[in-house]
Amino acid sequence: MKIAISDSQLTEMMHRAGVRPSVQRVAILSYVANSGRHPTADEIYSDLAAHYPTLSRTTVYNTLHTLADAGLLRELEIESGNMHYDLAPQPLHSHFICRKCGRIFDMTMPEGLSSAATPGFTIDSVDLYFKGCCPDCLNSDH
Amino acid sequence: MKIAISDSQLTEMMHRAGVRPSVQRVAILSYVANSGRHPTADEIYSDLAAHYPTLSRTTVYNTLHTLADAGLLRELEIESGNMHYDLAPQPLHSHFICRKCGRIFDMTMPEGLSSAATPGFTIDSVDLYFKGCCPDCLNSDH
DNA sequence: TAAGAATATTGTAATCATTACAAAGTTATG
DNA sequence: CATAACTTTGTAATGATTACAATATTCTTA
Question: If DSSP codes are grouped into helix, strand and coil, which group holds residue A142?
Fold first, then answer.
């Protein structure tokens, strides 16, 4: 996996967010940031357990919550029964999940979505999810 | 609960959708259609079990899937760990969930959202979710 | 730098929504 | 009416997530 965001950058982000950058936390944040995907807790655990043999599933869950609460990760509820994670501090975008292969893709985010909300409601997050078939699966289909 | 959509209307909808309108299915669809909320499987089961003592939780789950597959219900993945259900054949709208009281509200749906998707992707559903604080909770807060 | 306090990690056991499955019941069709 | 197709039911399993308590690590400050 190509490292697009270095551990020192991530450590710095964690400091600014008030989260102590333990080895495990940096590893988990780095995994999400650099996986090029939108992994689940279990994918993160399985892949990192090879490198960090003492890593616990509970730590992965704890850490994901901590990082999400700190605003460093974004939780994607795009697939029922499996929370997916995405690095938060990047241009706001929407997500597409392929019903066939299950992969999640980034899409652009239209402007001014919040105006769809009724006045009187305070909005602190907006999630836009598309579902359908990705180009790869459309091709391998016919 | 005020009945806005009659059982005969729902039965007719089920016929058109190719779903056999059993007693249980009509009861479940009617519950979702007329609850004024966006209930979970468990809420549906708990409330209907009083009227239909032999009703099984499995039937509720089976039926919700059947109705969703037939396009009569829409599944809302707005709250992690709890699928919520909404009547599908009504004007497309988005949803807001209050982080405090957990209630789900209907909001309008902006036009042309699909244009946010990258070309080459086939979109068959669009979900827009807002999270925040509802007016009631904002008031009882201060 | 050592001691004590605060915080993080770990492993196991529980929880809880959902699904699998097989038996029993119901409805449609010929 | 008989048979096949479909639906409902209850129980048992699954699987993601959480609770909890013990251990380990890090921070503070004397």
Answer: coil
Q: pLDDT grade, residue A45 (50/70/90)?
A: very high
Query: Which residues of chain B are in CATH 3.30.1490 domains?
Result: 94-139
Assessment of whether the complete model's pTM goes beyond 0.90: yes
Is strand D within 7 Å of residue A77 (CB)? Answer: no
CATH of range B94-139; options 3.30.1490, 1.10.357, 3.40.50, 3.30.70 = 3.30.1490
Which chain A residues in 45-104 sit with Cβ < 7 A of strand C? 52, 54-59, 62-63, 80-81
Closest C-alpha to A35, from A48, A49, A17: A48
Token representation of residue B46? 């708990």
Spell out the CATH class of B7-87. mainly alpha
Question: Does A139 contact strand C, using a CB cutoff of 7 Å?
Answer: no
In chain A, which residues have their Cβ closer than 8 Å to the Cβ of B85?
none
pLDDT tens per residue across span B31-82: 999 999 999 999 999 999 999 999 999 999 999 999 999 999 999 999 999 9
What does the alpha-carbon distance between residue A63 and residue A65 come to, in Å, rounded to a whole number?
A: 5
Residue range(s) of every CATH 1.10.10.10 domain in chain B: 7-87
Kindly tell me the burial class for residue A82, based on how many C-beta atoms sit within 10 Å of its own C-beta (0-12, 13-18, 19 or more): middle
Task: Assess whether B2 (CB) lies less than 7 A from strand D.
Answer: no
Mean pLDDT for all residues in chain B: 94
The model's pLDDT over A47-99, given as tens digits with 9 standing for 90+, comes to 999 999 999 999 999 999 999 999 999 999 999 999 999 999 788 999 999 99
Q: Least CB-CB distance to A128: which of B77, B113, B124?
A: B113
